[in-house]
Specification:
little secondary structure, 74 residues
Length: 74
């Protein structure tokens, strides 16, 4: 019985690595200033109408027409 030796030929792993790129873009430092042009609020105000209707003061009174008997004073 013959035994064969296992093959010991191993391949090396590839160690060729790519270096990361370190080229970075600088952020833009151009800033826009906010507009300082402000609009003033309108101060045109409407006043409330003061036209009030008052109740009529004409009153109707009941009629006092009474029939009276002729009484004589003693």
């Amino acid at each position: 019985m013959e035994l064969e030796r296992p093959s010991l030929e191993l391949e090396r792993p590839s160690l060729e690595l790519e270096r990361p790129s370190l080229e970075l873009e600088r952020p833009s430092l151009e800033l826009e200033r906010p507009s300082l042009e402000l609009e003033r609020p309108s101060l045109e105000l409407e006043t409330p109408s003061l036209e009030l209707e008052t109740p009529s003061l004409e009153l109707e009174t009941p009629s006092l027409e009474l029939e009276t008997r002729n009484f004589e004073n003693p």
